[in-house]
Design brief:
The chain is an alpha/beta fold. The chain is built from 24 helices and 29 strands. A hairpin with a 4-residue loop joins strand 1 and strand 2 (211-212). It is an enzyme of class 6 (ligase).
Length: 771
Amino acid sequence: MADMVSIFMSIGLNEQKAKETLKNEALSSTLKKAIEQARGLLGSASIDKTAGTMLYNMVTRLKDSTRLSFLTEYIITRKINSELQLSAALDFIKSHPQENLDRLQFDAACGVGVVVTPEQIEDAVELIIRKHKDQLLAERYRFNMGILMGEARTALKWADGKIVKNEVDMQVLHLLGPKTEADLEKKPKWDRSNLELKPFLHKICLLFVGEANTEGKSLMEQLRGEALKFHKPGENYKTEGYVVTPNTMNLLKKHLEETGGQVRTRFPPEPNGILHIGHAKAINFNFGYAKANNGICFLRYDDTNPEKEEEKYFTAIKEMVEWLGYKPYAVTHASDQFQLLYDLAVDLIRRGHAYVCHQRGEELKGHNIPPSPWRERPVEESLLLFDRMRKGMFAEGEVTLRMKMVMEDGKMDPVAYRIKYTPHHRTGDTWCIYPTYDYTHCLCDSIENITHSLCTKEFQARRSSYFWLCNALDLYCPVQWEYGRLNLTYTVVSKRKIIKLVETGIVRDWDDPRLFTLTALRRRGFPPQAINNFCARVGVTVAQTTMEPHLLEACVREVLNDTAPRAMAILEPLKVTITNLCPNKVLIPDFPANEAKGSHVVPFSKTIFIEQSDFREVMEKGYKRLTPDQPVGLRHAGYVISVQRVIKDGCGKVCELEVTCASSDSVEKPKAFIHWVSDPLRCEVRLYESLFLHKNPEDPAEVPAGFLSDINPNSLTVIGSALVDRSVGKAKVFDKFQFERVGYFSLDPDSTSEKLVFNRTVTLKEDPGKI
């Protein structure tokens, strides 16, 4: 096994990924063959990491192992050297199952030997811009730039997507100039009277009764009054499926007397993990529905499993609820009611609706459980045994208390109480029996006089048991309503899987900015308003919703564009000495589109730093920034610089430029303006990409070796020697900035007085190359 791990690590896999791969025998065997074939072709045991990554990706996706040698040869000889080419190769093989492949056809289909020059990219983009020029000039930055990228990618199939995007951005900027204040204004809302003329707006969201359009509606508008067709407080009996007993109306009358007809909801998380993006929808729905209808919402911890609960989860959950802008009417715990819940269980036995059972846990799993031989045992016997359960006279798993009912999914007699000899976070050793969710949930709702018990769709199978238990005990019965879960692609949110990521060192903790827990999103710099806006756009749907991360990122950009002050930072510095400058200071607006919102002053000395990518020693067609023959403007400074001397180190790398400057009013307008820093602060910058390579890392069809084998090796890039202007020197943790021309960033808790650390929240624009 150790030998195999070493072999897999030799192609660039980390030790954890190598060990995970070994768990899949078929994958391990195929990968080993590919490595042996590659070494044979190279005549060496050394395979570089780029080729190794391509080999691994090929093996994990290859369905026809007879093509292994063929594809290995193409990868090792660099005929296939990009993910785009590999995908095309796999598609071609899948659609051509015959034994002898036509290599010429294959090469053409996979772009083998195709080189796309910068000139070709520039010319192709120029044609596309010319085609849409009139519409671009009319709509300016409201034009759908995705159209330009789509046509460019079609015309330049094998070109590097990032280079194409940069060219499109540059040519659009050259045509339209910088964004004006008018360009930055938010789009007006659609005129709903013309909705029939815009069929693409009919992304209809199924709500609880009928259909409704959520396009452009705030969350409060979606949740207010009659929008969801929910029952009014006290009119529970009008809900379809609600069970009415002879005492129902009396109980509802008493309920109204105690609540005054007020809407009451609750958010009931289990305190055994950190909240994630799916919980954000639940928080917005529960707290939002109460707020929209002048009601109240409880934060109730479902703390009935002492084995998994920790103080840090209680604290983090409340913190995240408040971070999203909601204040609970009261913070309660299921454990507050342990004595009352026990008393109700005794009453349930007395009424003949529950019994003590000796079937073991393994016998109760699944849906075809044989009826318990103790189902009809005498009430007095169950009461005696239940009392002995409480007193700790049985071992864990030896007995349970079960309810006499059949759930909607066919599960018979669910467990109400089980034995756990684990001290409880709040009650210590007082109890050794704990109620289950099926027993606790509806009874706590009843005790707190909840009017609308809002749950995700998977709890629909428990609705009948919810009504049954309240009615069996002759208690006020709330109404359970279900809505669809919110999921995101390219991530995992399961507590068990996040713990695995933490334990294996793939991520640092629950708040690692590559995760989609709420603490991670906060650390990355996502504003709570953006998350709430995202939930509103998703809408309150019955169907499960799966969204892509870039839709959430779009909401983040929208908020940060209005709220994140501008600063300048250099990630890969190149020193520039201005030989004819008298040092001074420059006033920079915090929000260039609205200078009334404030400004800051930065030094402007003879030594400045620019991005290495903003200088090229050899002029290339279409390049608009600094070269020995082409000047460039400095943003906000009012100067244009021209290269006088290029200084190189001992390895021939450019390490410094000597330039002269002239007032921008006295020279011809340059083709581009770049950002810069002077007398800067050193800082660390962390750049994040998707944690996973595939859209659905938990799907065995996409990732046969499991989600831990799908980690993106480039999900985190740390730049330890970046430079930032001094205006951010007094920033506090989680303060947010737009680093001009670079992206949106947030100050990380790892920052110290000696060194600031910034996390990239999102790029300035959505990457059209994102899947």
